[in-house]
Amino acid sequence: MELDLFKGLVALFVALVGLIFLSKLRSKKLKLPPGPLAVPIFGNWLQVGDDLNHRNLSDLAKKYGEIFLLKMGQRNLVVVSSPDLAKEVLHTQGVEFGSRTRNVVFDIFTGKGQDMVFTVYGEHWRKMRRIMTVPFFTNKVVQQYRFAWESEIASAVEDIKKRPESSTTGIVIRRRLQLMMYNIMYKMMFDRRFESEEDPLFLRLRALNGERSRLAQSFDYNYGDFIPILRPFLRGYLKICKEVKERRLTLFKDYFVEERKKMASTRGPVSLNEKVAIDHILEAQDKGEINEDNVLYIVENINVAAIETTLWSMEWGIAEIVNHPEIQQKIRDELDTMLGHGVPITEPDTIRLPYLQAVIKETLRLHMAIPLLVPHMNLNEAKLGSYDIPAESKILVNAWWLANNPEWWDKPDQFIPERFLDDKIEASGNDFRYLPFGVGRRSCPGIILALPILALAIGRLIQSFELLPPPGQSKVDVSEKGGQFSLHILNHSVVVAKPIA
Ligand code: HEM
Prior knowledge:
Blueprint: H1 2-27, H2 45-48, H3 54-64, E1 67-72, E2 75-80, H4 83-92, E3 99-100, H5 104-109, H6 123-136, H7 139-162, E4 171-172, H8 173-190, H9 200-217, H10 222-226, H11 235-267, H12 277-286, H13 292-323, H14 325-339, H15 354-366, E5 376-377, E6 382-384, E7 387-389, E8 394-397, H16 399-402, H17 419-422, H18 447-464, E9 465-468, E10 480-482, E11 487-489, E12 494-499
Parallel strand pairs: 2-8
Antiparallel strand pairs: 1-2, 3-5, 4-12, 5-8, 6-7, 9-12, 10-11
Bound molecules: protoporphyrin IX containing FE.
Keywords: Heme, Iron, Membrane, Metal-binding, Monooxygenase, Oxidoreductase, Taxol biosynthesis, Transmembrane, Transmembrane helix
Membrane topology: Single-pass membrane protein
Transmembrane segments: 6-22
């Protein structure tokens, strides 16, 4: 038995070396981007390691240039670090580079691309994006839900006020804001909200979403993803992924999708005004446009793409505001001048508060939640700059470096919202140096929700509280923790929130 296994492994190894040799022969004619010398089987993996975060990739760009290639075992990874090449990938050749790579773990969580975020560019993606646009990504939706957002934010502010430690030792403000973000998105999806941070259903949901993010963003499975011969050793990890995926989709189905269907069958069809996102999506399923799995993967996508990204950005913004009291006061002064002291900010106000907007842009510049965008991919061999890009390469646009490169940003490592006051750089991608939401076909459709939600939450907190570091500390820690392509604050800030009269 053991001998058979050994023979099998040797055969696999020989086949692999043969394949590499053949692909080398074939790739001879390609003019590949520069990069460190790759060794057989491992490629550059042993040199560059697992953690290919935005900072490490920026350092490699300084050495190899605005485009370089890393071979991570069997996978080609192309990293783009200039505004011109970013434009090429995201705009000019947006179709060629508009697909996504997945890896062994993302294959599990997305059912091999049955979702929208991780599917290749094509008919399925177009249909899913169209079906999701009406219930989530239009100004009409913003107008339909702005009162619900304002009320959720007000409720978070009230809860924070009620806690005595808020104004003394401080609280981990993220916890209450996380409940707020779940309530905002679950109201839009299912017309549901969770009463408190202890709500058992909320706790289950949060735990499963957290587990999904941790498993997907971890570097622990790289070896089996890069080097297929090692994949058998990943069996245990992938088994856990499958279990989490099943439990999560079952939770979405049993507690939310089916509940909504039951409600519609007992109360009769919902009227146009009462329709929430899932009603639109189930209609698409009834028409045969998508299947039940696609419905659940849409719910899955919103859970990961919408809630934590916006929450991380909120956390970073609050941390910087705590660390820069003069900026905090400037935001408060602007709110007082434009709206009047004590008049709570509402959604239509957000566009006439340039300083608040600048603070949000600066937060998204310095602390991009998805600093390398969601990985892109070219299905077919393609050209980029003067180089050939092998088919199915993973293309990372280092959006963080574009927005933090001292060549075109003054003091990029400092939090200076004023830089956004004079020029007309928008978060929507009118300038290829600043792409916190990407740009083009695969850009973030959620920007239309994320920007007003961020402005409302941060504006309202600053109107309601003086936000300070905890006693004995002059600043909160803004160290980072990155994953496969996500970036968040390492230590959730403890913040003192002193109510303002
Ligand atoms: C501050 C908050 C957010 C940030 C920084 C952010 C950032 C991004 C980025 C960088 C991408 C990838 C762009 C690319 O690959 O070119 C993306 C994709 C996406 N985002 Fe967001 N996002 C945020 C909030 C949201 C929200 C609130 C939603 C939904 C309600 C959302 C839904 C999506 C979806 C569905 C995609 C995939 C688009 C596609 O592949 O076609 N995001 N986001």
